[in-house]
Hints:
There is one protein chain. The protein has 270 residues and is α/β, with parallel strands linked by helices. It has two domains: 5-167, Rossmann fold (3-Layer(aba) Sandwich); 173-268, Orthogonal Bundle (ProC C-terminal domain-like fold), CATH 1.10.3730. It is 56% helix and 14% strand. It has twelve helices and eight strands. It has helices at 12-24, 40-50, 58-64, 74-84, 103-110, 141-152, 165-173, 175-192, 197-218, 222-228, 235-245, 248-269; strands at 5-8, 32-35, 53-55, 67-70, 93-96, 114-119, 129-135, 155-159. The chain has an eight-stranded mixed sheet with strand order 3-2-1-4-5-6-7-8, sandwiched between helices. Helix 5 links the parallel strand 5 (93-96) and strand 6 (114-119). Helix 4 packs parallel to helix 5 (103-110) and helix 7 packs across helix 12. The radius of gyration is 21 Å and the shape is elongated.
Amino acid sequence: MRHTIGFYGAGNMAQAMIAGLLNAGFYQKEEIYVYNHRYEPTLKKVEEEYEVRAISEEKTLFEQTDLIIFAVKPAVLTQVLPQIKKYLTKEHLLISVAAGVSIRQIAALTGPQKIIRAMPNTPATIQQAMSSISPNELVPSEQTQFVVEVFNSFGKAKVVSEEVIDAVVGVSGSAPAYVYLFIEALADGAVSEGLARADAYEFAAQAVLGAAKMVAETGKHPGELKDEVTSPKGTTIAAVKALEENNFRADVMKAVEAAAKKNHEMSKDT
């Protein structure tokens, strides 16, 4: 069964997913409906850039679509769910990408509904997202699979238990920011050694992209791949030693733990 799709929210994450869906050809622009809570200029921008169906009344979104992606901040989600409850039917499948708001909390505000928590990241724009999919018990397996296909269209998606979503946020949802910092630091080091800034970013970004694809496509353990490029008394082992002396791996682990902890704390606050 193919669902009509609507976005409640038109911010950066919604735009990334819309761009991914359109670039992949999974949905056509006239098949995507978008409603934005309060801020009209953002909705206008999305309508002009992506030529999707921008609508001004939230009621219309629920009348015209049966798969609704809530791409809003956690505080906004908990505010709007009681308001839209009157528009919901048993046919609606609700997908939340808001960090820190559990399925239990969503259901408490909407009543019994088919609910999926999803955690994509912004590389959806270039069809390279990594997304987790966590359905509640009311979602049939075929609908879960359809949602996986939707999210696969702009990257890769995997069904996981909601119990591990804090870890997903730390290792994937927030991770693009860590990688951007890493690329920037790599480029700064290269500039310090005399490479032009534009060249430094190009070399650093491609090195990170290539290394990531080696892990994803070879199936080898990252440690094994690291060993393959660390020759005795070579340049790479000298760099690895410097990173280890400065707690590189421990600091990255702490970053993942900090993001996971924050997501868990947010679920208590909402």
